[in-house]
Amino acid sequence: MSLIQRHIVFGASLSLFLLLFFTVAYLSVFPPASLSLLMEKKLMDLPFALILPILSLMIGVAAGGFSGVYSSKELQQIADTLEELDKGRTIHMSESKSVVGVFDQIRKLQNRMNEQTRLAQKLANEKAEDHEKRVQKVVSEERNRLARELHDSVSQQLFAASMLMSTMTETLDEADKNETKHLRMVEETIHQSQLEMRALLLHLRPAALKGKPLEEGMKDLLNELSQKVPIEVQWKIESIALDKGVEDHLFRILQESVSNTLRHAKATKLDVLLIYREGRIILRIVDNGVGFKMADHKVASYGLQNMNERAIEIGGTLKLISLPQKGTRLEVSVPLVGGERHD
C-alpha cells in the first residue's frame, strides 16, 4: 500500500470513528423519542442517518488524500536531496517548514562529509609527500635497475627468439604443416610474452610524476605506450590543479589500469579521459579487449584492490564494468573540495 493510500484509509477511518463517537455521545445526552425518526427524515431522497456517514467518509478521504500527496512530495524532496548528497552536489533548502529540521540535519551531514573528504585528501597529500621524500630515491633506482636488466636481458632474448621462430616457420616446406602450426603457436606465445614484458617495463619506469603536473605525466605515459606497444591510444586530458597526493593516486591508478590492459585485455584500442565536471574529477579508462564476466572476476585481486584503496584514500569511488568480448571500463570519481580548476 502506497503512502497516499495509507493516508486515505487513515483519514476515512478517523472521520468515521469521530462520527460514531460524537453520535453516541449526542444520543446519550439527548436521546430521541424514536431512532426510527433518523431513518424517516430524508435529504435528497436519502435517509438522514446515511448522509452523515457518507459526508464524513468523503471528508476523511479528501483530507487523507491531500495529506498523503503533501507528505509524498516532502518525502520525495528528501529522497532527491539525499541523492544529490550522494553525488557530492550542493543541496538546496526546502521551503516547507515541516521538513526544515530534516534539511538542516542533511546540510550538517554534507558539511561533515565535505570536511572528511578534505581531511582525507589532506592526509593523502601529506602521506604522499612524506613517503616520496623517504623512499623515492631508493624506489626509483631499484625500478630503473630492474627495468634496465629486464630490457637488456629478457626483452632482448624474447626478441631474438621471436625472430628465430619467424625465420624457422618461413623456411619450412609446405608439407610440414603440422610442425609449422606448432611453431606458430610458440611464436604467438613469445609475442604475448613480449607484450607482457613491455607492460612490465612501462609499469616499472614511470615510478612517479617526479614534479610534473598530472596532465603532463599522463600524456608522457600514454605517448610512451603508443610508441612501444601496437595499440591505438586516444586521450582527452584537461589541465586541473590538484594537490600532490590526489595527483599521485590518480596517476598510479592510470598506471595500474594500463598495465592490466596490456597484460590481460588483448585490446587494440585504449581511451583515457580526465575531466572536471560538477565539482568532481573524473578519470575514465576504456579498452576494447576481451573483457570478463563480473561474477567470475576476483574482485579482491591485488590490482583492483590496490586501485580501489587509492580511490578511497582521496575520498573518491571506483567503478568497474566489463563484458566478455565487449571490453572493460574503469571510472574513478573524486570530489574536488576547496580546489580550483585551471584550463
Structure explained in plain terms:
The protein is of the alpha+beta class. The protein is built from 8 helices and 7 strands, in the order ααββααααβαββαββ. The chain is elongated and about 120 Å long. The model has no long low-confidence stretch (mean pLDDT 77).
Write the layout of secondary structure elements.
Elements: H1 3-29, H2 36-40, E1 42-43, E2 46-47, H3 48-86, H4 100-171, H5 177-204, H6 214-228, E3 232-237, H7 244-265, E4 269-277, E5 280-287, H8 302-313, E6 317-323, E7 327-335
Parallel strand pairs: 3-4
Antiparallel strand pairs: 1-2, 4-5, 5-7, 6-7
Entry summary:
The chain has 343 residues and is α+β, with helices and mostly antiparallel strands. 64% of the residues lie in helices and 13% in strands.
Compute the number of helices.
8
Distance between the termini: 52 Å
- The unreliable regions are none
The overall strand count is 7
List keywords for this structure.
343 residues; alpha+beta; five-stranded mixed β-sheet; two-stranded antiparallel ribbon; 64% helix
